[in-house]
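[stage:ingest] chain + small molecule (glutamic acid)
[stage:ingest] validated
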Amino acid sequence: MTKPVFRFAPSPNGRLHLGHAYSALLNADFAHRFGGRFLLRIEDIDITRCRPEFEAAIYDDLAWLGLHWEAPVRRQSEHFADYRAAFQRLKGRGVVYPCFCTRKDIAETIACREAESGEAWPRDPDLAPLYPGTCRALQAGEAERRIAAGEPHAWRLDMAALDTLAPDPLLFRRFDRDGQEEVVTAHPRRWGDAVIVRKEIPTSYHLSVVVDDALQGITHVVRGQDLEAATDLHVLLQTALDLPTPRYHHHGLLRDPEGDKLAKSRRSKSLAELRAEGATPQDLWRRLGFGRQPTPST
Ligand code: GLU
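[stage:predict] done
[stage:export] tokens:
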């Protein structure tokens, strides 16, 4: 039997905080308990926000925590060709369309539709409002003309077209801390026509993560509950791209005393700051509920 493969996949757009430490330790702990492998992936497709010093700090913080990972580390910024190939595959299947809308265009269209219908636009509290479909309905030839004229555009998934490719119900496996598995249903429709290739970057988080999990042979994805909705979309993308679907575990999020989830953007205390205040790795493992230092088997 092949070994289970786990990964921790941070983005180098800030210093790691306690929530990242928890996710990394949990992955390593699973790998240890399941006799699996532990990989690290640097998710740096957003080259405007990611910085080399943050990447260096990730290696430093994780090593300080006592983690070991396999080399080489996959850095997404070195693999745009893989994401382009996956996108071409989706395009070949007719499940994407170009979108020229700005955020403002979308907000205005939604406001108009709400005014016309007198009803609130459907929205999932965790997600951006559903795309109203403006660019799905362009006249034949118009999209090609606007692309040829150099107009900035993203690419969106055509949920209705994807539906025809995906089994109904769309199922995947979830596992708990003890490795007990259950089959659950994914609900990717709640995303509407999600952006799959961004205007300013020739891929997206969703596309790259799905491609990389497959290329790295990830069998078990362990990540926070804030990405639970993303899993629904990822399972659909895996189906559309003929990629295997890993098993998923979504862990609870660490919160600050006000109840907000820890976040780089909220200036939650970084591991570096905790270290400077005298915290030891052992303090953090204990504080995060790990009795011993996870030492993944190699
Ligand atoms: N790069 C993502 C983050 O830092 C995690 C992606 C994932 O685990 O799938 O939040």
